[in-house]
Fold this protein.
Amino acid sequence: MEFSAQQIADFLKGEVEGDATVKVSQFSKIEEGKSGSLSFLSNPKYEHHLYDTKASVVLVNKTFKPEQPVQVTLIKVENAYQSLATLLTLVESSKPKKKGLDPRAFLSDTSTIGEGCYIGPGAYIGDGVILGKNVMISPNVVLGDGVKIGDDTSIHANATIYEQCEIGCRCILHAGVVVGSDGFGFAPDAEGHYHKIPQIGNVIVEDDVEIGANTTIDRATMGSTHIRRGVKLDNLVQVAHNVEIGEDTVIASQTGIAGSTKLGRSCVVGGQVGFAGHLQIADGSQFGAKSGVAKSIQIPGKPWQGDPIQSVLDFQKSSIVFRDLPRMSRVVSKIEKKIL
């Protein structure tokens, strides 16, 4: 489908600068723009691409002022990145969705399937499973006994949801996700041999959560591991037993959270961050990539970085000293030779 710049501007409540009749039918990155495509500019470091892009229409923030003449048609909006997301969501939602039960899937007689669901080939739906409306179960997904899935949730290929776990509405679980595997619980005896502690809890994932490919969330020893509304987990994140992640927290790839740690609301966690167990993390805390978090955080809304963590300002000061260590070492060696 084609849309004019004016039609897009009207939908986004934006303003057109340039040819309002120009039409687009696809999206492109600004540095790879081609005729008939729509792109966006939100990061200033990409501004130089604006002046030679071949895209037909570019979304920009209303506050943006070009430093050179612009040939492309601009649509000025409050937030270019958010407006792009709105358009992409509209396009995605317009795609036709599969419905029905593939004959190669296994469906327990005691399961309950809502209207408009799709269950792909090789999927396994266990006893007492409840699926809401318009749920998508891709090929080779396994839903253990007693699993509950809310309306409009999509579970992609080869994901596994263990027994008694609950997934909310409008969630997205990407390929290879595992929800509800046993927590890492073992008790040593007097001789140092480890014995498994049964994990009898479950995992509860609330509404509007997205879980990236091959991320794993362990079931609780007792009670529930709890992923609150709006949480976004990247690929390859490990969430241990009895962890709680607060609403609207986002966590980047390869982060690991040890057992019983509780993250507050609206936290931002960079890649490869490690959390020790039994911590309390205040709302709005921010952690730079590769940080090591070994203590609870009581002050909300503060940025941290490093291993062990320290304030970002202290980390930056320490980094300057660290980079200067080779020169300092040479100076100390010269002084030692003179003294000794």
Remarks:
- DSSP finds five helices and 40 strands in the chain.
